[in-house]
Amino acid sequence: MQSAVLESPATRGPSNTTERYAKCIETSKRIRWDIDRDVIRGREFDFGKKFMPDGLSKVRDLPFLTPAEARFFSHVQGRTYANMFALVERYIGAKTIELSKGHALGDQVALEALIRFADEELKHQRLFRKLEGMAAQGMPDGYTFVPDPNEVADAVLSKCNWAVLALTLDIEIFSQAHYRASIEADPQLSDLWKDVFLFHWKEESQHAIMDEIEWRAEDARVTARQREDGVTDLIALVRSVDGIVQAQAAADARYFIACAGPTYSAVEKALIEETFLRAYRWQYVVSGAGEPRFAEVLKSLATPAQMERIGTALAPIAAAAA
Ligand SMILES: [Fe+2]
Ligand SMILES: [Fe+2]
Questions:
Q1: Distance of CA 49 from the midpoint of ligand 1 (Å)
Q2: What is the reported pTM?
Q3: DSSP assignment, residue 33?
Q4: Which entry of 9, 211, 261, 277 is 20 to 30 Å from 116 by CA?
């Protein structure tokens, strides 16, 4: 399987962008999967198993939870994971269609690759909506997903291309970190959820290659002033993601505390709230930025002063996710 995120700069393959797009098409066709035939395969969620792996959920920081409560903790996070991806893929799909138009009368290989990319994101949204429905069937009433996908997409797409492509590469690369966490040996982890991480990552690997190509192309088009504005927009976008994560972590902590069973002490409640937020900051903000591939591309495009601006702005979020 072609995996962009595991490649080193020296082995990344063809430098010509048309060839790289052609490789994405080839890999995309080879690994193409179907929601029902390959991922779901007639299975229901087994609520006796965990949905989110411990490495992502941070459940080990709550040693006072019983095994059943720890499982429920992972179910809440898994449900939010499905909703968060359905959310970001709304704007990513729209942006990819917009980018494809730039190739409509030009590089037909790039056009085909980006259309496949957009089609895959539509499929991923369908998958995650389906997972949300399946999760809802086996979980108590009262769960809410706070942000609205279209409102978020509107807000993201109002920012400049340089920043939107940076955020998108970050998101598509963090599926690598999430997949890696899901393959840690853990017999308590749901097989269906393991497959969700695996199959999603397979297609996200191609998306990350195309994000990088498009981001570098945009970077070559912008002026120094526009790049500076791009950095400002990127910082604003990451702070917006953190705002979404804070609101959802608070909602999920309330739901968990109300439905998990026991009456927790004030100290335990505070720890539960803090762990949801730390886990979500790790999953949706920090894990992508920490992937060497993302840092390498960002460093090659931003000036040292801009890298410092980004680092300073994001340090408090990174520290809070540690
Ligand atoms: Fe996706
Ligand atoms: Fe993607």
A1: 24
A2: 0.92
A3: -
A4: 9
